[in-house]
Amino acid sequence: MGENKIVRFPVPASGPPASGEDSKHGNKSGESHPDKGHEPVNVVSIRASSGLGRFYKAYASQTREDGFVTLFLAWEKSAERLSVVSLQLEYMYWLGATGIIDFAQLPVMSKKEFEDSLSGDGEMAEGSGIKEISLEEALYLIQSAARLGNHPGEAVSNREFRRFAWLLTEPVDFSPAQIAKLLRSLIGDTMGPVDVALIFDRALFTGDFHLAFHLMSAQARSKVGSIQEFIAKLKETPQDMRATPEDNDLLFDEEDGPSAIRIEAARLPAAVSQIVASAGGSDETGSPGVKNRQGRSGGRRSETVLVRRWLARKGQVIELAQRFELIKEKGFFAVDSPEPKRISVEEFERVARQAILIDGDMAGRSPREIAEWGNYVMKEGNYPQAIRILDAALEMEPRLLGARLQVADAYVRIDRADKAAKHLKRLLEVAPPGSVYSDKAKRMLRIYEVLDQHSGEFPEEPLANPDHWFDPVERAIISISGLIKPGVDVFRETMTLWNLFLRYCDIPLPLIENPITWAVASLYDVARLRGGDLTKGDLGSFLPVVMGIPWHKLRKMADFIWDVIELYDDADRAWFADEVRVFFLDGAGYSHIFSHPSGEPHLILCNIKLKGKRSPKTLMEYLSAQRGVSAKRSATGGVFNWELSSYSKASGKGGGPIAARNVQIAVDSSGVHLSALDDESLSKVVSRLKRDLPDYLVMPGDVVKLDLKIHYS
User: Fold this and answer.
1) I want to staple 651 with a disulfide (CB 3.0 to 4.6 A). Which of 315, 349, 517, 656 is the partner?
2) Who contacts 540 (Cβ-Cβ below 8 Å, separation ≥6)?
3) Over the stretch 130-179, which tens digit does the pLDDT of each residue have?
4) Between the CA of residue 681 and those of 643, 650, 652, 662, what are the distances in Å?
5) Looking at the DSSP assignment, which residues form a beta bridge with residue 85?
6) What burial class does residue 584 get, using C-beta atoms within 10 Å of its C-beta: 0-12 exposed, 13-18 middle, 19+ buried?
């Protein structure tokens, strides 16, 4: 660009260009000349580089696949000082995001400051890759953005931009091959066939027409004609197949909500090509799909990629699946099908499952092995792929009950409760009646239905009605946690552990006749995970008595759960912590139920059936049977108040009560509480309880220390 070149720049027009205007002017790249796209209302002549000095360098962010580019242009003010401007360019027509949306003239800086700020961790790089480009390439990026919409961009009205408005009209002459090379360099290093297909589909969806055009092969471009003809045809895309301005947040924000967009792809290995061919039929020449795929490229490497787009807008779901043919052209994969063939979503899922098994070297493996792999992928958080792997296993063996629960959970995590419900209904059909799996399926279906009816909220506190919301083992965990007060965190971890065990267990569990044994086994593993041992101390002595099963049998059950979930290293435990966080009960609301005021696990004796040397009784029955004890008051919430009167033999035959020697015994959710007006009465009652209660609590040879809370009134 000469120092004294006189150029013209447009003052933005108030409306769109006249119909057909884009196709009136063309250059050898097949694109209309940039300075003809927006006819100026006023024309101002300036010297393009007046006051700018000699051009130094241009850099662009490698974000072109996302529909935008940040551009930095620098001119030399002196031997070491630079004048720098930045431009934010957008190319998404359907989102209403096109042109120069931001322009800024940066403070004068040294060459070193400029280069450092664009390094990997530099301030201007902002974490994205940065590539040096030529001034001509920068001009193309600016002008292609400015010409895409009805307006060159809101930043052109910036007063500072007027000095640089010549950037919009300076002639640029690139071939399609040069443009394609530039755009690919601004996408990044990963450009396999799946990447190209995904980027191409996203470009069509968002209206990034220039990128879509130059991701096509030369043969495909020749079929669609000039870029103006290509754009004109794409502008006729039905609304349900393209983005709208309201979809902008869905594409760039990761927050969950009533709307979402997901675009995913599956590459077809050669072994699966025949499946696609048989499903897809013939091309327009009548040749089978596979032969066409091999022969049309003239010996060049070709690939088939299926792309599925799932869009939810305020509850309405739109699904689209397409088949893309790609060839390798001059070292790059290019889309060879300008009009991708539409296929059914079911076909996409079926072929994608087969492709995943072949890519993962799992074809021909047993359903149980495939399900185990799906569980591993589930742990990694790749829910869409885990779904396909587990579905492949379930196609071969529908009675993998844990895998059925697992895939339902995976669908919920990608906001597809409708798909989850289908798997749970199928689980009800194949699970043995009365099994924990059928019970679990019923309750989960009930939860999904209620959450759907109440905008994702429970109409009641789930713990207020455990029989309605929880399976038998979960209800046992709730009961035992209310008994021993392990704390909310331990409660949530135990509930999570049990649910993970059901999903990850690859062998069907027998009918659970004693749910509390599985509850304590889960609690034992949580204690082990925290570095503790549930078999020690008062709890270790008490829990086997309550259940009637010795610890060596409980340990076997706990080891079984532990081996299924595989909590062996820090990575496994970090994954488990993440799973606890997504548990649907909010622990903060239940701290009063599962946490002892002291913060320590505590043995609660209230209303528990006791087994010992004498006949089974409850603590209430023991107190009622003692001479001189009478019920004084029963309060709500499991709190009872009793009065014990001490007797004196000196009062005559049989003795008589001494009114001043009364002891109050309160049994509530935090223990046994005693209060008295004198120490003598208190010590007598304490001695009596310590003497008698172990007979009701323990098996012969075991010892339990009573934790009596003593209060002086």
Assistant:
1) 656
2) 533, 534, 551
3) 999 999 999 999 999 998 888 888 888 888 898 898 999 999 888 888 99
4) 12, 16, 20, 7
5) 73, 105
6) exposed
